[in-house]
User: What shape does this take?
Amino acid sequence: MALGRPSTYTEEKALEIIKIVENTGSILAACNEVGVPRSTISRWNQNNEDFAQAIAHAKQVGYDNRAELAVERARTASDAQLDRLAFDADRWYLSKIDPKRYGDKLTLGNDPESPLVPPQDTNEDPNVVAARAILFKLAKAEAALGGSEKAIRNKQAKD
Assistant: This one.
């Protein structure tokens, strides 16, 4: 027998919360509007897999809605300073909450999704580029074998 208070979870409350999160991207706004503490929603998330999946999806939809609304407000701004402040706040919030989708793209070395490619000189003869690549591969192979023919000849000359 379970101890403690009975759960206040109902399908109606859950659907209302999910709808609000889809519109705003904010669980806090849903908590305030429905009158449910955030800790209760966290507990529902832990105990109900379907609710957890629905909330996760609703958050993504809500973030998209929030981004679209921010752009729309910026386009139809009546007070440039206030609307710019609101836009920047939404942009910052979205970049922190979902950096892959809304954050600034940073390219780092050895990133498997976006490897760095050296710049190509478009005026260079393709045959020269191919020859340079072959010479580079040969030098790499010689180094892997433990030295070049020159080093072998020098050793033979000493003997």
Q: What stands out?
A: The CA atoms of residues 107 and 114 lie 7 Å apart. Residues 49-75 form the longest helix (27 residues).
